[in-house]
UniProtKB/TrEMBL annotation:
PANTHER family: 5'-METHYLTHIOADENOSINE/S-ADENOSYLHOMOCYSTEINE NUCLEOSIDASE, 5'-METHYLTHIOADENOSINE_S-ADENOSYLHOMOCYSTEINE NUCLEOSIDASE
Record flagged with keyword Transcription: no
One BP term from GO: L-methionine salvage from S-adenosylmethionine
Protein name in UniProt: adenosylhomocysteine nucleosidase
Top EC group: hydrolase
Organism: Oribacterium sinus
Length: 227
């Protein structure tokens, strides 16, 4: 079974609607939809926005369903110069850029007493996503680092910081938290992010304009990925 997590209901609503043999299950504050997509057994959930929501939902999903893989789908702001609105970023790894224990000698982004600075995605999932991306004509697919923090990035200064300090390709608010919990539990994961804005001063307007299209592309991609 593959666990699919989105931060917002609109990121998973269409996938829930398309589920065959659909079953709804509540676990604490989370409402899971179990069923089949593209012939594969899946369980879908809206986590809520931000790292704490994402981590809590991921652990609840793992405890309840013991998924073989976790796929985190959603939208993000572009950080790398070559990535633009409606392109796809496939995670190489993910880092929590707002973790700062540098006063104790840790690199910026390193969680104290944890092994990983960045949490690496599962290689076979990466390979499959990149292969699916090559078959898509409407956007470009990139492999790179996801930078996660509890902040909507909308300044050129912050964008440049994430690019130079972390070599980030995109920024968002959940991926690295999901990655951390998946890794602690030994569950392979992958983050998929369609670009809704370019994380600059125009980001709030661009996000509003392109969010729906980016989510629609995400749904189509996930269905192909599952085949």
């Amino acid at each position: 079974m593959i666990g699919i997590i989105g931060a917002m209901e609109e990121e998973v609503a269409k996938l829930k609607e398309l589920c065959e043999d659909r079953e709804e299950i509540q676990k604490g504050p989370y409402f899971f939809v179990k069923g089949k997509l593209s012939g594969k057994e899946v369980v879908l959930c809206k986590a809520g926005i931000g790292k704490v929501n994402a981590a809590a939902c991921t652990q609840a999903l793992i405890d309840t369903f013991s998924p073989s893989q976790i796929l985190n789908t959603g939208v993000a702001g572009a950080i790398a110069e070559e990535i633009h609105v409606l392109d796809l970023l496939v995670s190489k790894d993910a880092v929590q850029y707002d973790m700062d224990a540098t006063e104790f000698g840790y690199p910026l982004g390193q969680i104290p007493r944890e092994e990983d600075l960045a949490f690496p995605a599962e290689e076979k999932m990466i390979e499959k996503a990149l292969a699916v991306g090559k078959t898509m004509q409407d956007f470009h697919t990139f492999l790179g680092r996801v930078a996660t923090g509890d902040c909507f990035v909308s300044s050129q200064e912050k964008k440049e910081f994430l690019r130079k300090e972390f070599q980030a390709s995109c920024c968002e608010m959940e991926g690295a938290a999901i990655a951390q919990i998946a890794r602690k539990n030994g569950v392979p994961f992958l983050i998929l992010r369609f670009i809704s804005d370019e994380a600059n001063t125009k980001a709030p307007m661009t996000y509003t304009e392109f969010e729906r299209k980016a989510i629609a592309q995400s749904v189509d991609f996930v269905l192909e990925f599952l085949k």
